[in-house]
Amino acid sequence: MEIAARMSSKGQLTVPKAVRDALGIGEGDDIVFRVEGNRAVLARTPDFLSLAGSIQVPASRRNAAWDDVIRKTRAARAVTRR
Predict the structure, then answer these.
(1) Is the predicted pLDDT of residue 75 greater than 70, yes or no?
(2) What long-range pairs does 41-45 form, CB within 8 A, spacing at least 24?
(3) What is the pLDDT of residue 51?
(4) Which of 11 and 58 is assigned the larger pLDDT?
(5) Residue 23 and residue 69: Cα distance in Å, rounded?
(6) Which of 30, 34, 63, 76 has the smallest number of CB atoms closer than 10 Å to its CB?
(7) DSSP run (H or E) holding 73
C-alpha cells in the first residue's frame, strides 16, 4: 500500500485513515519512525505491558534488583569492549 501525504509548514503529517486502520493505530498511540536509507518506516510501538509473561526468565534471574542488573550489564559490556 502506498498513500501520499503532505507535510505542513510546521513539519507535521496526517497519517491517512487507510494507514491508521492497517496498522491499528488511534489517538494516543505511540508511533516510531525508522530511517532506512532514503526512506522512513512508520510503525506502532508495542504495548510493553501486553508482552508480560511472553519471555521465560530463568529462576536464577528473577527478582533481581534493577541496580544490580544495570551494574552487571555495564561490567559485562566493559569486558567485551576491551
Answers:
(1) yes
(2) 42/15
(3) 67
(4) 11
(5) 34
(6) 63
(7) helix 66-81
Distance CA 41, CA 35 (A): 6
| Closest alpha carbon to 20 in 3, 38, 40, 6 | 3
Q: Kindly state the cell numbers that stand for 40.
A: 522512513
Q: Is 20 exposed, middle or buried (0-12, 13-18, 19+ CB in 10 A)?
A: middle
Residue type, 28: G
Query: Residue 4: helix, strand or coil by DSSP?
Result: coil
**What's the gap between Cα 15 and its chain centre?**
18
- Rg of the chain over CA atoms, in angstroms? 20
The whole model's pTM is what? 0.51
Asked whether residue 10 carries a pLDDT value surpassing 90, the answer given is yes
| CA-to-CA dists, residue 43 to 32, 51, 53, angstroms | 5, 17, 23
pLDDT at 12: 93
